[in-house]
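Quick entry, no commentary yet.
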Amino acid sequence: MVKKFFKILLLFFCIIFIIIMIKKHYYNDYSVKNLNMNVKGLKYNIKYKGLKSSVDFTMDNDGNYYIAYKDKIQIIKGNGKSYYLFKNSNLNIYSIEYFNNKLYFSSDTKIYCYDIKNDKTLEIIKDIPNYGDYKNSIIKIRGNYLYIAVGAATNSGVVGEDNKWIKENPYNHDISPKDITLKGINFGKFKTGAYQSYKTKSINGQIIPEHFPGNSSILIYNLNTGNMETMAWGIRNVTGMDFTSEGKLIAATGGMEDRGVRPVKGDTDYIYEIKRNTWYGWPDYSGGDPVTSPKFKGKANSMLQFVLENHPTTNPPAPLYQHKTLSSIKSLAVDNNGNLSAKNAMYFYDISNKILYKFNGAGAIEEEVKFNKGDVCSLKFYEKGLLILDGEEGYLYSIEKGNINNALKVNKSIYFYLLALVVVLIIILLKAEKN
């Protein structure tokens, strides 16, 4: 009897050891940790998994989720049923939104509308100048308006060898959404001017006529009438945008980099409030400061020069927040209902250190969540909290108020199955002993 007891005890501890090793060496890799100890209580869960290579998501009022991939869109219904609404190898989907039983999504130079009930796709916007460095348009819907971010074609307004796309599009360059006048400064051994194709010079006083739509801008499209206009311009590249409870458009933008024939040293990423009919400074200002200020340096630490003769303003808006690093903010969401924290707190993901930050609009940012692996590609608030899509690992996380859960368990059912295995093995062992 004692011998039987020790066999059962040994078996039990072996199973417990297996559970601990699985949790330590496999599941813990997918955990997130709450780094802000001042948070009264947040709970972390995985809403859906198996979403590898996804790029964005949205949801409707009936609890259905729509997951966008490069060339297809998947629906996950409230009852758990999942299937693809459509697939199209010609698409290059980047951003998706839901409105009135329709899905709107960006793909290369176009915006599409997919009617869910009729299973029909319609091209509603075309000829967006998405051929350059920042060619993926983020879209956002508020009310009856669709907002579309159009990135710059170049780093700082001048085409150079750092723009790998010149091999396929040698005549491409930045297109201005408003009339501008150039100073006639040319760069590099081929003397390329701003807003010119590669190896094309500019001259002093040269007027670049307005073109719609243009690069480095945000567009507004009326979903009822189909009318479209430029909301704001001089915005290098938007990496995330959302709205406050008052309807203010908040956007994360990337600063100019130390590359190309007009390199810029000393810049960082920013978060702005975007206002109508406003110029935000690119390519001669960044973060509200002129590139001629001591903050920035050019090639061989030289002083930078303006490329525009006359600026729409010498005092473009300053950002709400200046990040410490460059090319690191990816995705942004505003807690406009105060689900997790202060109302209108801004949450953004830093790809360089895999940290989700919170910014309340003033003061220092706060570290909210640290990801051990994966890559967040989209953040969106819903009625209970924040949803986070990790397209690299294939998880849609939810963060809500509740008891603190510092280690996010990927698959709770594994413990149930292992416990059941222990019981079955004990029963088998007992029967064997009787025989």
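second:
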Amino acid sequence: MGRGRQKAKATKVARKLKYFSPETDYAALERELATASSAASPDVESDDDMYEELAAKYAVDDDWDDEDA
């Protein structure tokens, strides 16, 4: 295809996308969002709690600088 035809086709597609407004199913969106928010259970530990566990597990004194002196 030549550049003129290619540009015309791209313009046609862009215009079609610009003015295309699909029907939005707000009920389905609400169900999906409600399911996603209820999937996070309150029993899940926070990031801070998990970090504290790992920090305690791998706690090492960083006094190696003093040993080299």
